[in-house]
Amino acid sequence: MSSTQELTYSDVSGHSSKKDLYLVIHDKVYNASTFVDEHPGGEEVLLDVGGQDATEAFEDVGHSDEAREILDGLLIGKLQRKEGDPAPKASAPQTSTSTSTQSSAAGLGIGLYAIILVGGALAFGAYKYLQAKSEK
After folding, report:
1. Phi, psi dihedrals of residue 80, rounded to the nearest 5°
2. Average pLDDT over residues 42-50
3. Region 20-25: what's the mean pLDDT?
4. Is the pLDDT of residue 109 over 70?
5. Residue 105: predicted pLDDT
6. Mean pLDDT across the chain, nearest whole number?
């Protein structure tokens, strides 16, 4: 099969078994049948998305450059979307999302420590105030 072959979603959906497994990632169709046993995440991961759009699942894992090269070797064609086909799950690889998530999580952590510090200081002040008031 050549990489310029166009397949419809219904063509792809018929290939969802371990020995005949097609995946759609970014509107490109890949034959993962020969890779099922070699997949580091196990065969179940591939079988769960077999015969359908696996873009979101592929990008959520954050595959390495080597994994993307392997994927290029499995390319058999492009997906020709027709009316009534499921919408694409994701439009492009998300490389900057993890950086923004990490920075927002760090910001939340710093804010949380500040709140705990201020709360502790207020509690200590209230304790000292009540202790001094009860001694009088």
Report:
1. -100, 105
2. 87
3. 90
4. yes
5. 60
6. 82
**Residue 38 per-residue DSSP state:** G
The answer to whether the beta carbons of residues 16 and 54 sit under 8 Å apart is no
pLDDT at 63: 87
Name residue 113's beta-bridge partners.
Answer: none
Residue pair 6/12 in contact by the 8 Å Cβ criterion: no
Sign (positive/negative) of CA torsion 1, 23, 27, 11?
A: positive
58 is written with which tokens? 């592929």
Residue 13's SS3 state is helix
What is the rounded (10 degree) CA torsion for 53, 55, 58, 63? 140
CA distances from 106 to 98, 101, 111 (A): 12, 9, 9
The number of angstroms, rounded, from the C-alpha of 115 to the middle of its chain's C-alpha atoms is 32
Do 10 and 4 form a contact (C-beta atoms < 8 A)? no
